[in-house]
Write a structure and sequence with these properties.
CATH superfamily of the largest domain: PPM-type phosphatase domain
Strand order of the largest sheet: 8-5-4-3-2-11
Distance between the termini: 111 Å
CATH class of the largest domain: Alpha Beta
Number of helices: 9
Radius of gyration: 30 Å
Number of strands: 14
Length: 341
Amino acid sequence: MTIFIRWGAFSDTGVLRLQNEDAVLAREGLFVVADGMGGHNAGEVASAMAIKFLGAAQSSGIADAQQLNSIIKEVNEKIFQAANGQTDQRGMGTTLTALAITPTNKSKSENDSKSVTVANIGDSRTYLLRAGEFRQVSVDHSYVQELVSEGLITRDEARTHARRNIVTRALGIEPTVGVDTWTLPLIAGDRYLLCSDGLVDEVTDIDIETCLKLNSDPQQTANKLVEMANKNGGRDNTTVIVVDVLDKDNKVVSKPVDSTLLKPEVNFSFRKLIISVVVAVVALVTSVVTTSYARSGYFVAYEDETPAARVLIYQGKEFLWFNPTIEADSTLIRSDLNLVL
């Protein structure tokens, strides 16, 4: 039996973020999700570098988990060197989860001539839906995962934990990094999901599983999952790849997706529009109230300290960037008031 791969991929800025620091690569034989981190757009640079170098390495072929491990470690060195070479990129890094279709040297038939190799660094994830059973293949490198592993909190509690976004391992942060890999048989009917934490922070595993089971087309499934994340808050960038393993009767050609070739898009969602309007209204009201307070009241003062100084009438008070202004000029001078007194 000949096996084919079909996939769908989608990456979205989300509801609250203005920039997408995720990067995605989806093409025959290699699927990668990278979630960048670091200020001044450096996260976007790190994730794009990871995608670029992995894509270039795949052109020479990825034989097995060991080679994929070595390639990712080389990518780590390149990102680390770039981060330390430019001040505005210092401290940048990226998570990464990758799925590669690799040869199986020990295979004796066409059915098992290839394997699936999964690699992971950070808290981006790879899931597998096989024979109706849904499970996470990768293991997060994160603070909350350590708490879960120690039995201190549950997986559900980890989703809302205050420190859920702290990763304990990422590409580009240190000169060397450990890469976790898994090798699985390539079986027709399997469905893999690769995603950034923007999905799992907003959508429960149960809802993700349901979506994967109810939607057959991988591209529509990827779109739906991102839509669910945005409807649930969309607080982060969300990237999803759905990979289907099919037999020859279900062969459908999928288009390659490389986020490094895509033009940046600004996500004008309805919620962003509402937030922008609210911010503008608050700023306007604050400005009106501040101006009203600063311009309230009148007082009389001398022009200067000399006996011939004019007596002036001022409006307002010294407040923030406001200063009193002269509203009237009397015919009196300082010495006139002294005589009256």
